[in-house]
Amino acid sequence: MLQKFCSGAGRPCQPTHTELLQADLAILSSNPLHDAADKKREEEEEYERKVRAAKRAARSGISVSKGEWQRNGYAQSDLLSTNGIVDQVERVHCSELTVEQFVERYERPRIPVVITGLCDGWRAGQAWRQPELLERYGEHKFKVGSDDDGYAVRMRLRHYLRYAADPAHGASDDSPLYIFDGTFAERRGSRGMRRDYEIPEFFREDLMRLAGDRRRPPHRWLVLGPARSGSGLHIDPLATSAWNALLAGRKRWALFPPGAPRSLVAPREPGLEREATSWFAKVYSRTRAPDWPSAAPVDIIQEAGETVVVPGGWWHAVLNLELAVAVTHNYCSSATFPRIWAHTHRGRPKMSARWLEALRRERPDLAAVADGMAARGCDREGTSSSSSSSSSSSSSSGSSSSSSSSNSETEQPPRKQPRTAGGGAAAPAVLGSLAAALPPTPPAAALLQSGAAALAAARV
């Protein structure tokens, strides 16, 4: 009760109207419920503002306010259904495979494979669940795309995870924003994540490290996104191979062998965007038609705990079937060096010069291979197999991709149009001979044989 005393004998007198209003405001401002409501409203406004800003920056050509992020209605379609999809790629447990066997069966002949058991024992299995991620990295900003000038678009993880489940945004967007962060292992707020997993023994050679961290292309990414996010069809840069370890969720992959015609598998046509959703909705069905004139796609449904290995030169598109968390690396090994060297020497001459200097010191045998290729002119034959997007996911989705990220999942970024590696004319013979030479692994042999036949028929 507001009480004041008039001058004189200390008699109380009535407060003015203004004084009563000031008193009411003072009571309201000190009310904990009022404070909480204000804070909640401010948080809601901040969240909405950040989400809309990220969307506008990552895909400036699509209106947020007009609902264009949901114009195709993919969230209400059967795009995520896996009915009728036959997973054709061989699976092998890591305990049943030596490094030498991996090289000879899969890496050297460029055969995709799914390796199980590699993630067992990784701290990331627990540390990268949503509650733990929010607790450790909720305030850290991860890359969700690139703006029109190539700069990273970032969101706080707590905002992003809320966005991913929001019916007004990520849960309904045709192609949601996608965390594809190629600097997570270097940035102060997230570098601890690098200690949550280890590079499997099959991929540890990593010859590009000899070029130096400042010169080598981006090579590792944290990949996190909801259903319908993903990577449009692409080939990973510089003919590198990639491994993608899925910690949580499910992913759908479609792969085409080296030499598959770009005009067929990645056509440029009106209405076809570069995001994964657009490719799976509009192109994939064509590849299953009886009159499809090239190799049919190789399908994979990747489950949590599985690691997909994509050899260099293979086209691939990736679609998240539910909220998925993965880590992916691109790499170069002794077995894949010649092809990667040819692409790097042509596409990254300054880097290749530094790389060759280091190889002369550390791997003179491979330096001799490079010198021999130069003498024969073989180091000028390739082209850069794919552009590395300015977004740090390796998911070559589309330049207007909301699923944009940046370099490779291998999912490669959506910002630049991928380019195919050379050698298309020899692809049927190469695939056929590889199939004939394979050890008794029927799925892989059949995969290559059918690809060789389809590519040969397409050129008749």
TrEMBL record:
Positions of the JmjC domain: 188-348
Cell compartment(s), UniProt: Nucleus
GO MF: histone H4R3 demethylase activity; metal ion binding; P-TEFb complex binding
GO CC term (a single one): nucleus
Coiled-coil parts of chain: 33-60
Predominant cellular place of this UniProt entry's protein: nucleus
Protein name: JmjC domain-containing protein
Native source organism of the sequence: Elliptochloris bilobata
